[in-house]
Design brief:
The complex is a heterodimer.
Chain A (H helix, E strand, L loop, with lengths): L1 H17 L2 H25 L8 H24 L3 H7 L3 H5 L4 H32 L4 H29 L4 H13 L14 H12 L12 H5 L6 H25 L9
Helix pairs in contact in A: 1-6, 2-3, 2-6, 3-6, 3-7, 6-7, 6-11, 7-8, 7-9, 7-11, 9-11
Chain B lengths: L1 E10 L2 E11 L3 E5 L6 H8 L7 E6 L8 H6 E4 L11 H11 L4 H14 L15 H13 L5 E5 L7 H16 L3 E6 L2 H5 L4 E6 L2 E7 H9 L3 E7 L2 H9 L4 E6 L5 E6 L2 H12 L6 E6 L4 H12 L5
Parallel strand pairs in B: 3-7, 3-8, 5-6, 6-7
Antiparallel strand pairs in B: 1-2, 1-4, 8-9, 10-12, 10-13, 11-12
Chain lengths: 264, 311
């Protein structure tokens, strides 16, 4: 219980630090970027003879929000969680508190996830207002859940990268995103099953009920980069990735010698 | 309270702490050493932020590494200046109190008490980015006190304090010792430590060169050749007179001709007998400076002994 209270103290403290003009400006940029882009597409689209269907809009929102907004938000927040404390020389004060390292890691992880998820949900709400799809509730529920799962899983990946290579956390996270999530995740082989993208795509297809409709008309390639397991399995795997990687990060950060530079 | 058994800490091929053994009971101690001597590494080992490469460290009976029970008993104030600029001193100290397991209200009242104790009652709700260096130093001390520890470990706590601040900090630490609590104070300035405690650990180059009371260290040094610099109006004449005395081992003259450097194993005899030696000679002594009066020279002497250059 005390450890939970400590984690909550970090969460509350980090949120209070987040409510500054520069950080809120970043939040706003992330929240308005997808609806802004959607509005622009709608405006430029005019009145075409063959307008994009509802599925195309849903897929665009999937790419823009769980795949771009969430990744960007977590890159900014989750990745440098340790680096910022070491470079700011504030790590020492936390490291000599009972359970301080773990509370710091989990508290900062939860702050990054909630901060980014709120931006994602705001972006989703605004974009859905602009699009007004026929199955609004299903879009909101499916994409809203995907935002949360993406934040939990990507947040855990970036937190781990921040622990393994604190001095090069941002670079390693960008490389991971480009190489693993966007490249390996699209290779039609077993290796893509290790990516978060693979699970999120599978959930999108299942929750939007595209398996029996949209997917039948698409080339074979698309079947190869989508998992056919049930939705609950994908959710469990994503939650397992999140819990497993945060636990691994906590073990590493407790065992690693981390001191601020410039003490001597 | 603290037991180090042949502790060595390597950073790759660089030695931070070199084969240090010591045993300290409860009390107040000054850890003295020049910048880069290994003080902070030693404190990081004692506070469980580093693990020794060789040897073992025990603080209050336990290994400090990830020792939550020990962290409840110690308050640590590092030398580094890291504070969150957009957070008030009160919010930060309360937050660190909460990390000690204090409830929010209790942490708030303890934070107020600690900040009041270090003289920041009026500024505690201002953002720390606007604090002077002395105020930041006081805030750092407050965070070390907020959970009412038994043992305070301070790394260069006087840095950035003005004379009034130094006096207040000194009085605060004296009160702390008077309450029967333990203190380990690291500094590179002798007199800062001397006014608080008379038990010293002298560290240089990662090695523990000497330990004991100030008197013990000075007594020990009494048998070691010391350099005494004397500035006067007729240094060559004084030099000739001094060479006739058995306590003087050698004399050399400073460039410029204003002073002479005397090598002696008994500097106190020089001080006591010099007035008699120059009485009636017309020699006017302007300044006497013993090399062991400055900590830097003291460490130089100790290092030379350690290397076997002086016996």
């Amino acid at each position: 219980m005390i450890q939970l209270a400590r984690t909550f103290a970090v969460f509350r403290f980090e949120w209070s630090r987040a409510l500054t003009v520069p950080r809120m400006a970043w939040w706003l940029v992330l929240a308005v970027f997808p609806p802004g882009l959607v509005t622009l597409v709608r405006f430029l689209e005019g009145d075409p003879p063959d307008p994009p269907g509802a599925a195309a809009w849903t897929f665009l929102l999937f790419v823009l929000i769980p795949c771009v907004v969430c990744l960007m938000g977590l890159l900014l927040w989750a990745t440098p969680w340790l680096q910022s404390e070491l470079e700011g020389k504030t790590w020492t004060y936390l490291a000599v508190r009972p359970g301080g390292k773990t509370a710091m890691l989990v508290g900062k992880y939860l702050t990054a996830v909630s901060w980014t998820a709120l931006a994602g949900w705001m972006a989703l709400a605004l974009a859905l207002i602009v699009i007004s799809p026929p199955d609004l509730v299903r879009n909101a529920a499916a994409l809203g859940a995907l935002v949360l799962l993406a934040c939990l899983a990507y947040g855990a990946v970036f937190v781990l990268l921040g622990v393994i290579v604190p001095k090069r956390a941002m670079v390693s996270a960008v490389v991971y995103t480009l190489v693993v999530e966007f490249l390996v995740g699209l290779i039609p082989a077993v290796v893509n099953e290790l990516t978060v993208q693979y699970r999120l795509r599978a959930l999108l297809v299942k929750w939007m009920d595209w398996e029996q409709t949209l997917l039948r008309d698409l080339p074979e390639f698309f079947r190869l980069v989508l998992d056919s397991g049930p939705a609950w399995q994908q959710v469990l795997i994503l939650l397992g990735i999140a819990g497993g990687l945060v636990t691994l990060s906590a073990v590493i950060v407790r065992q690693r010698e981390l001191t601020v530079t410039g003490d001597e | 309270m603290i037991e180090l058994d042949r502790v060595t800490k390597l950073y790759g091929t660089v030695i931070g702490v070199n084969d240090i053994s010591l045993s300290l009971g409860p009390g107040a101690y000054g850890l003295l050493g020049p910048n880069g001597s290994g003080k902070s590494t030693l404190l990081n080992l004692m506070t469980g932020q580093l693990r020794p490469t060789l040897g073992s460290v025990r603080v209050r009976g336990g290994d400090p590494w990830n020792n939550d029970e020990l962290y409840r008993q110690i308050g640590f104030c590092p030398s580094s200046e890291g504070l969150y600029a957009n957070v008030s001193g009160f919010d930060w100290v309360r937050y660190l109190g909460e990390l000690h397991g204090l409830g929010r209200h209790e942490a708030a009242s303890r934070a107020e008490e600690a900040l009041d104790l270090v003289g920041l009652a009026n500024a505690m709700h201002r953002e720390m980015g606007g604090y002077s260096r002395g105020m930041r130093q006081r805030t750092k001390l407050a965070q070390a006190l907020v959970h009412d520890p038994e043992f305070l470990i301070l790394d260069e706590p006087f840095n950035g304090l003005d004379p009034v601040g130094r006096h207040e900090m000194t009085e605060l630490l004296r009160d702390w010792i008077r309450e029967g609590k333990s203190l380990l104070l690291a500094s590179h300035i002798l007199h800062e430590v001397e006014v608080i405690t008379h038990s010293f650990l002298l560290i240089c180059g990662g090695r523990l060169l000497a330990s004991g009371t100030a008197e013990e260290v000075h007594t020990w040094l009494a048998d070691v050749p010391n350099e005494v610099t004397i500035r006067c109006n007729r240094p060559r004449e004084l030099g000739l007179r001094l060479l006739a005395e058995d306590v003087v081992e050698s004399v050399r003259f400073e460039r410029g001709g204003g002073g002479l450097v005397v090598l002696t194993r008994s500097p106190l005899s020089i001080y006591e007998r010099l007035p008699a030696w120059i009485d009636g000679s017309g020699i006017e002594v302007q300044e006497i400076q013993s090399s062991d009066e400055s900590l830097h020279e003291l460490f130089g002497t100790l290092m030379r002994i350690h290397r076997g250059e002086l016996m």
